[in-house]
Fold this protein.
Amino acid sequence: MNPERKEILNLIALPGRLSAAEAAWRLGFEPDHIPVLVAEKLLKPLGNPPPGSVKYYLTTEIEQKKNDAKWMHKASEVIRQKIKDKNERAAKKRAVRSPAATFNRSGE
């Protein structure tokens, strides 16, 4: 386990705000899932951060969501669907490239 992750998960008293990676660890998601949850309006960063800036999340909100079975189900489904869509797009790209690559090889 990542030492930073282990440290944040074992804190007795959490800070008032968490970074995206820390929020992900507390929720049981991967850090790259946080932007997906934000885009789907399931999480909201503190303040009004511009795109590309570091975003922080209210610890009490993260802890509340962590204990909300309905929210966790919805968030997990959103992540599952995004991963499924991404894999399907990648498979289509491979399928489109594959016949062209085969044609070029056989044409030589």
Observations:
- Residues 69-106 form the longest helix (38 residues).
- The mean pLDDT is 88.
- The first strand starts at residue 17 and ends at 19.
- The two ends are 50 Å apart (CA to CA).
